[in-house]
Amino acid sequence: MGNLREQLLKAKLIDENQAREARREQRQKRREKGMKALQQEAREKQEAFLREQETVADRNREQAREQRKQDDQRERNLRLVQRIQAGEIREGSRGNTSFYFVARSGIIPCLEISPALAGALRSGSAAIVEKPSPHGEAFSIVNQETAAALVKDAPEIVCFYKHS
């Protein structure tokens, strides 16, 4: 408080008499309250400070938990993309046969693939999966082994797989 008083004096917003009067009033208020009331006030301030610290700590813990969750999801998506790329079928992925399927978003996209690859999809020796991507939908055709593993580990990304 004295510091604020000094700043007001330097800025000439109050004069020395006003500063003295403010100090006197402050002492008088402390005397009137008594020692118990001042101690109670100090305890309440301390408790409020501790509650605020706990709130901040809770917020920080929640942010850290959310960050770990996002990191885990990014890591999982990276592993899935690597598995998809390892089992991806590239030959015949361009052709003149239209193959329609239902994506996770509910839309019905169409892939233009070779007739042999369309037959492999219908027979279950290949599958269409959606690569985890923050940039929108990206589909790949993977072999049966990769599709079977993805059905177990990440069934939400498998768009079309006729398994027995």
Give the overall shape.
rod-shaped
Number of strands: 5
Low-pLDDT windows of residues:
none
Binned, the helix content reads: 55-70%
Radius of gyration: 35 Å
Structural class: alpha+beta
Mean of all residue-level pLDDT scores: 87
Largest sheet: 3 strands, antiparallel
Tally the structural domains.
Answer: 2
Separation, N- and C-terminal Cα atoms: 80 Å
Q: Estimate what percentage of residues fall within beta strands.
A: 5-15%
Order of helices and strands: HHEEHEEHE
Q: Helical stretch count?
A: 4
Widest sheet: strand order?
A: 4-3-5
Can you characterise this structure?
With 164 residues, the protein is α+β, with helices and mostly antiparallel strands. It has helices at 2-10, 16-86, 115-123, 144-153; strands at 97-100, 110-113, 126-130, 139-143, 158-160. The strands form 2 sheets. The protein has a 3-stranded antiparallel sheet with strand order 4-3-5. Strand 3 (126-130) and strand 4 (139-143) form a beta hairpin. The longest helix is centred in the N-terminal third of the chain and has 71 residues, at 16-86. The radius of gyration is 35 Å and the shape is rod-shaped. The model has no long low-confidence stretch (mean pLDDT 87).
